[in-house]
Amino acid sequence: MTAGQVALVATLALPALGAAAVALVPARADRAGRVLGTVFAALALVASLLIYRPDGGWFGYAPANRASAVRPWHELDLTWVPGLELRFHLGVDGISYPLVVLTTLLTLLCCAYTVGRSPGARPGRTLVALLLVIEVGVLGTFLALDLVLFFLFFEVVLLPMYAVIAGWGGDDPRAEAGAHRAAARKFVLYTLFGSVLMLVGVFTVVAAAGTADIVALTGGAGLSRPVQLAAFALLAIAFAVKSPLWPLHTWLPDAHTQAPTVGSVMLAGVLLKMGTYGLIRVAVGVAPEGARWAAPVLGVLAVAAIIVGALVCLAQTELKRLIAYSSVGHMGFVLLGVATLTATGLQAALIGNIAHGVITGLLFFLAGAIKDRFHTGALDDLGGLRERMPALSGLLGYAAIASLGLPGLAGFWGEAFAVVAALRRGGPLWTTLAVIAAVGGALTAAYFLRLLRRVTHGPASPVVAGAGGAPIAGVELAAWAPLVVLALAVGLVPTLVLGLAQGPVGALVEAVR
Amino acid sequence: MTQAVDNLALLPAYLAAGTAVLVLLADLLVARRGVTVATALLGALGTATAAGFAAAGPVRATFCGGLPAALGATPPDCSYVADRRAALIALLFALLTAGVLALAAPALAAGAAPVGEFCFLLACAMTGGVVLGAAGDLITLIVALETLTLPLYVLVGLRRRAVASAEAAVTFFVVSVVATAVALLGAALIYADTGAVHLDLLAAGPATPSPATERLGRVGVVLLLVGLAFKVAAVPLHAWAPATYDGAPLPVAAYLSTASKLGGAVAIIYVVVGALRPWAQVSGVVLAGLAVLTMTVGNVVALRQTRMVRLLAWSSVAQAGYILAPLGAAAVDAGRTGDAGTTAVATALTYTVFFVLLELAAFAAVVALRAPGADGGRIADYRGAARRHPWVGAALVLALVGLAGLPPGLAGLFAKVAVVRSLLGGGAGWLALAVALNAVIGLAYYLRVATTLYGRRTDDAADGRARVPWPVAATLGAATLVAIVVGFAPQLVLDATAW
């Protein structure tokens, strides 16, 4: 085993070991369990950083005899279940690497946040263990180079996330009892619906191609047109549920509203990315002909998501719900980028993914902090936050402005270049889509400014004036600071992500063309 | 014509039948509860060991109609074929019997049912199951299946002083007898058409096809399948199952939903792959239709259940649909009698093995959470059970999640993956979609039970931490451990069931 392979396995194994270790910690040592889990999450972050291969950009590591569009920096290929075409085949390249690091980073921040702020009556160590299991599933999805393995890890995430929402969610005292369980059930059934369609799609491909190796399959090698169309349709619906793409997004607002803060952060920051990553790597990569066939439909739906998300946000009165719906709009930009099937569009989608993970993660952390202090998320009750908590409201302003796509912050690149890619694609359809998407971008600015006006400006509302408003704690600052820095760093130096992805995306576009 | 009987081939069957006789004698002569149960348990484990050795040995056949083509070759037209899959099935039946005996031990100790009768009947049923796996003709098959089922009529009614139990027994008896009669009629019509009952002769097709009797054969095929579908409780022939399961003592309900279901599935597999190959078009349509109906109705009705055993019963109805689906798909596609058919049969058997394992674990956990001799109760009674018994609760959740086919229940996940893979490989995409969508409905009710286990009790009249009796704990532990192992190494099961 090379050092790279060891790092690859360690990235996946450390959270798994951590989850098992934390689960065995007895109830009286709850805090120790949370700390232990955080240590494992930190080790996983270190392992994921070690995967990086500086020369791995354009040429990457590729055996000479293989001319595939996927050229992993490191690869590990072991037999697992030959009877089901399942191989334990992991690999990482410039498309997946930024997402891997985002995942390990956000999980660490969530675990650390849980150490500082115990989630009330329910045991915090169990929550940490579940976060680590979710991390295993997400990382496995990003690292898998075998379709069946990809599916397997895709499903690993479902039940732990259900447990997080159902067990630790619903802290809103005004919500009816059991609302969080209903939201969790909606989440798990909806996303399982997506992933069973993916199972059918995966084996449609495997049955036709005789292999589940993503490296071999990328570019649609040897798949007939009907197979590709069927496979793409199934896979695209599966990933559209996860992303989520309008009109399959209805599980998202409920899940986000009811989930605990760390659950929302994980959900928005990394779980949604599984959908868009899958769309790029699996659906587009394996069934390019299907992708070309469905691209206009995807583009129209993506733009519809942008507009619908923005309009719903303009009418939202609840903080977390508003951020959740803003995710629908942002993922719409990402999907628009994918739908163009151009290098620019895919690049925009990738950086949009990362930016959304960082910024929306930060927004949910901040929303959680506000709800912790004032026990309400209603915009009407939160006026005048700036008077009582200038630092918190300043951070919220920063995150909101980053999210609306101000140049110089992370949110700008993904949205701007998705529109540019659609314009470059040319033709009446794509030009129209680009224009509407740009209008959607303006609406995004409108609702975030409305949010800021309602929450931070004006005189302090009775709720804000009456509550204690504890100052920002050290653990909160520690959890937010990396995201604040990253939002600025990715905004100023987009090559952090784009440089890595340039080679693989170019190769993918070549293969898909 | 006289011929030598290959006693070695029959060894597992001898051991199973011997167990029944020994248990009867032990109960008569020693008349001590522990001895009787121990005899039955040892007999079951002995049968399992013999079956395990048989799996490693060569194919043995006896009661044959033809002569071997070459010296040492397996002769054709045999009524009893002890090959590797027969050994696997015998092994499963023996282990399930041992497990159910262990689950019943506390209830028997509490005097919920007469010990001697219980053990004897269970051993008889095991004999039927062991012979069933080796059946080579339709008559042996149906007789073995009946030997498996007949003792269960009595076992279902064995709960003392329980009207529901008696009702369940009568329902089960009436339905099952009708089903057997229908299956026998079907076999007779097929015989009238072809003049053969041996599976391999039937598979080869009639020597001189005659249009006059050909229609008769087709009716026979449908009747035979319908009769066997009763045994796996396939919709619309399922109505007996929930009432029977719920009325039966818990361990017997466990046996019904594992061993009895395994028996029905094996019978259908044998009949479809062997005897009915010439009628694949007919049997395929019947099976595919049954499969879709069964999984959909089973899952949808399970959503509304409020009693634990009824929920498990309806869920096992749905699971039967997943078992039938690959068979239906393979048979519809009559052209591919070769590879795809083989995969489909192996897949159906694989799914059955995974299902039986998880179902046993689920029932063992339910038994562990209830007082000895109690029935399954309402699902609401289990609120907070996992807080009082964290390990049992975790095992039950693992089994339920496995039945739903999701990680961390990897065994169930791979079972579902195998079915979908086989269906798509056989070109039955619509069946694969039906299976996939049903998995979503299934999760809804499994999740409801799992969430209830971790819910907060509203009344604080907690009945304390009653200790789980060790035989139940051992069975639960073993079943869970095996489920975890085959979850990570499903290839073990795939290899064992390869046709």
From TrEMBL, chain A:
Biological process terms in GO annotation: ATP synthesis coupled electron transport; electron transport coupled proton transport
Entry's localization field: Endomembrane system; Membrane
Topological type in the membrane: Multi-pass membrane protein
Family stated for the protein in its record: Belongs to the complex I subunit 4 family.
Transmembrane segments: 6-25, 32-52, 95-115, 127-145, 151-168, 188-209, 229-252, 264-287, 293-315, 322-343, 349-370, 391-409, 429-449, 461-480, 486-509
Keyword annotations: Membrane, Transmembrane, Transmembrane helix
Protein name as annotated: NADH dehydrogenase subunit M
The keyword Nucleus belongs to this UniProt entry's keyword annotation: no
InterPro entries registered for this protein in UniProt: NADH_Q_OxRdtase_chainM/4, NADH_UbQ_OxRdtase, ND/Mrp_TM
Superkingdom field: Bacteria
CC per GO annotation: endomembrane system; membrane
A single MF term (Gene Ontology): NADH dehydrogenase activity
Keyword flag Cytoplasm: no
UniProtKB/TrEMBL annotation, chain B:
GO biological process: ATP synthesis coupled electron transport
Catalytic activity annotation: a quinone + NADH + 5 H(+)(in) = a quinol + NAD(+) + 4 H(+)(out)
One Gene Ontology term, aspect cellular component: plasma membrane
Every NADH:quinone oxidoreductase/Mrp antiporter transmembrane domain range: 135-441
Keyword Membrane set for record: yes
Keywords annotated in UniProt: Cell membrane, Membrane, NAD, Quinone, Translocase, Transmembrane, Transmembrane helix, Transport
Protein origin, superkingdom: Bacteria
Coiled coil region boundaries: none
Signal peptide: none
Any one GO molecular-function label of the UniProt entry: NADH dehydrogenase (quinone) (non-electrogenic) activity
Transmembrane segments: 12-30, 37-57, 86-108, 138-158, 170-192, 219-240, 252-273, 279-302, 311-332, 344-369, 390-415, 427-447, 468-489
Lipid bilayer topology: Multi-pass membrane protein
Subcellular location: Cell membrane; Endomembrane system; Membrane
The enzyme's E.C. designation: 7.1.1.-
Pfam families per UniProt: Proton_antipo_M
Quaternary data: NDH-1 is composed of 14 different subunits. Subunits NuoA, H, J, K, L, M, N constitute the membrane sector of the complex.
Known function: NDH-1 shuttles electrons from NADH, via FMN and iron-sulfur (Fe-S) centers, to quinones in the respiratory chain. The immediate electron acceptor for the enzyme in this species is believed to be a menaquinone. Couples the redox reaction to proton translocation (for every two electrons transferred, four hydrogen ions are translocated across the cytoplasmic membrane), and thus conserves the redox energy in a proton gradient.
Similarity comment: family membership: Belongs to the complex I subunit 2 family.
Name assigned to this protein: NADH-quinone oxidoreductase subunit N
Gene: nuoN
